[in-house]
Fold this sequence. Notes:
about 5% strand; mainly alpha; Cyclin A, domain 1; 3-stranded antiparallel β-sheet; 3 strands; 13 helices; single chain; TFIIB; N-terminal domain of TfIIb
Amino acid sequence: xxxxxxxxxxxxxxxxxxxxxxxxxxxxxxxxxxxxxxxxxxxxxxxxxxxxxxxxxxxxxxxxxxxxxxxxxxxxxxxxxxxxxxxxxxxxxxxxxxxxxxxxxxxxxxxxxxxxxxxxxxxxxxxxxxxxxxxxxxxxxxxxxxxxxxxxxxxxxxxxxxxxxxxxxxxxxxxxxxxxxxxxxxxxxxxxxxxxxxxxxxxxxxxxxxxxxxxxxxxxxxxxxxxxxxxxxxxxxxxxxxxxxxxxxxxxxxxxxxxxxxxxxxxxxxxxxxxxxxxxxxxxxxxxxxxxxxxxxxxxxxxxxxxxxxxxxxxxxxxxx
Length: 321
């Protein structure tokens, strides 16, 4: 017998390896089936344990999948599709750098050729008015979401809402920017990371009146289920922007919970209640923060904070008694 390594396998290991065996390959010693052992990078006989090949290259993926859905999710064949691009990211982009694969600058003739290719590529990517509309709107959504610090899932949801509005022909008579802003505002509230109307209007190209009017129309026509904003959802962001402690955040949540049980929150602005609770909690924990600081972070007036924080403290005293 040749000087070849022989490895012994348990019956369980053999059964795991058998599905990867080649039917036309046989062991040179006993004629048994050959199986591939990916753990040791070897091809082994399932009968006698003879190692026929070793130090093989594993050409499979580095991840494991236990069902078809997980396999499709983990498989990487190009960039994933996304609703944040008008063509779902399936088209090709030509880079703006006039350099070749080695980083060398292109000649003037090659630069002219690449510029023409970019022009025609853009024309083919947006072949009709609907795609041009969608491209502009999704660009606006991405710009505003970046300015507001909203996560990617909110941008995806806003893109889906805008696509629905476009498909159901809700845009005639309304601006692209107005519908895009309304979609982003609705998506942020659905995801539990709301932004106030003033914050949204500050980064939008439309005024607050048009935004509120378009938002109500989009929600009504698309039957969007959007719950009233919870004041507690604003508290972590305000605490972070003011660099306050975890104890202050906990006290602010307790104040809002007391206000909810006493019915103080009814008919009040969620942003105003959240800002007032943060200010009141800072006073209770002896942290240095002024009404002006909270007002700038929350984009509301100091008068609102003064009125609301007194109501919150009274509700908290009532619960304590």
